[in-house]
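Researcher: I've been going back and forth with a colleague about how Cellulose synthase might be arranged in three dimensions. Neither of us has a model we trust, so I'd like an independent prediction. The organism is Thermodesulfovibrio aggregans, in case that matters for your notes. Sequence below.
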Amino acid sequence: MLSLYIAETYAIIIYMLGIFVNIHPIKRTPPSLPEDKKLLPTVDVFIPTYNEPIDIIRTTLIACKQIKYPQDKLNIFLLDDGGTLQKRNDPDPEKRAKAWQRYETLKNLAKELKINYITREKNEHAKAGNLNNALWLTSEGYSDSDTKGSEWYFCGLPPQKGGDLIVILDCDHVPTSDFLEKTVGFFLKDEKLFLVQTPHFFINPTPIERNLGTYAEAPGENEMFYSEIHRGLDFWNSSFFCGSGAVLRRKYLEEAGGFSGKTITEDAETSLTLHSKGYTSAYLRKPLICGLSPETFDDFITQRSRWTQGMIQILMLKNPFKQKGLKWYQKLCYTNNCIFWFFGLARVIFIFAPLFYLFFSLRVYNVSIEQILSYAIPHLICSLNISNYLYGKARHPFFSEVFETAQSFFLLMPTIGAILNPKAPTFKVTPKGVSLKESVVNRRVLIFYVLLALCILGIYAGVNKWIYSPLERGAVAVCISWTVFNLSMIIACIGALYELRQIRRFHRISTKEQALLIIPDKLKSFKANIIDISLGGLALTVEDKDFVPEINTKIEIVTWNSYGEEFRFLTVVKRFNIEEKLITLGVSFHESTEESKIVKYIYGDSGRWENFWESRERARGIVSGFLYLLKTGFIAMGRNMKGLIKFLFSEIKNYKKLGVLWKGYGFLK
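Model: Here is an independent structure prediction for Cellulose synthase. You can compare it with whatever you and your colleague have in mind.
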């Protein structure tokens, strides 16, 4: 099969490029800033927004105001693409009203927080266009033609135009207070540096992690890239802009004509342009922002489809090997970044290839059992161990296979579409802050139930071949084993597509911090441990028999961040649970507590995010990793099947026609 040959060749190339990229990952230490503040560069913070919830934007803006940096050198800009003149003049009255409401709300929010508000005339070139509009509007000597129709509202005196550095933050990416303290120093050391990228840390799990229940026990889906791969790219001076959590030098951006907008991944494309001009980049592996992952699997696929199409666009329209200014190793790194996103095509072929042999005797693997034991098994063992050595702490064995298999079928059409017409893809914003009132079976799971049945039938057909075709037992053994492996991944995918409900207004994140509880009425204090935090409140444990909690009583909590800064909060007891000597307490912040104080405590401490990240860096053995994933997959699939049966019986009970049960179950949607 030519398709299998191509897929295997692709897999070998990706494997070898992965080893090359990660041959020597580097871990940078932030340079100290000069004591003389006059030597510090001016900084503009750009926060683009489109349709995200206002409360998410508000939190980010408050945190930006708390960044430690000389205030006369720091300007913050909210870039509103949801309140453009184009949207406020929309022919649809409902859309027009929403745009006006958003425009007024965000403008008033900017006025309240004393930051700059910018919107523009038309929604051209999506995020890149929004950023470029602000770039030219805030540049010295800009032309009105560059920013025609833009609106800029500022509080107090107009900020000094043309900040030396530009920070890009997605509106759901909340910065820590030391963001600039940890990043600006790099630019003072290297005049040719155009970028410092920081990792994207997420307070909530991806839908796959949440639905499988692996978030607390295994590294996050994005951690392999931000913990290991990006450090490897940094060694080759190929660390690239990831759209947010980054600092860029303005003069090099202006020299390149602003943010690139030829593709829908303006971040990586901009980096490619600036690297080809001979400028350098740096990656700081320290979480300095906290963002939100997509809440639902559909939103997750929307995000990954954009990344897939954007990187394929770069490969097709701005082929790294045709960029004259790039070094040979940078060309390899960028090519690896681009072709990785063909994994959807390869995964689909790897799932169907053994089935074609088991069902139709289409020879896909011509080998004897002796050859399997001599070549295939040693190669498999070596490659698994090398991968586990390179990425084991950031990605447990076989988790990549689950993540990629879960996405592969739904990235097929975006991948093929971008190959056939690379100029066609358009930018789609990933929805954030979506809630699920109840657990549901995602309609996309149908394809995996079909694959589950095909794999089981394929194994049955393989057993028959083993019995009745003894001369083919080598190929039969390989294809049965291959199908069993695919089956285990499909089981996990079925579990991942049972969407567990998410009704919390604020996401909680686990932590381990000391605190002191003070009962105002009784003048007593008790030692406690904070076990999770959110903007809404805290969860604590107390081991003191004299502590007797009561619902709705007020408690003052004293705690400290990793810098030793003290925080005092008045809280209200909302729930508690007593198990032997351990009391678990849930409290909410009292309504009198300043919002800025809560934001500073929850989001301002980069040490907390770093501790959480490192707490999950636990490597697993290959066998134990596979068994853990199999166990997790079976449990989650059980939930999915139970939910599906419940749904079917509910439909039948309501006397709905059988055809309605399948309505909307198109996986190519």
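Researcher: What would you highlight for our discussion?
Model: I'd start with this: Confidence is low (pLDDT under 50) at residues 664-669. After that, consider the following. The domain at 509-615 is CATH 2.40.10.220 (Thrombin, subunit H).
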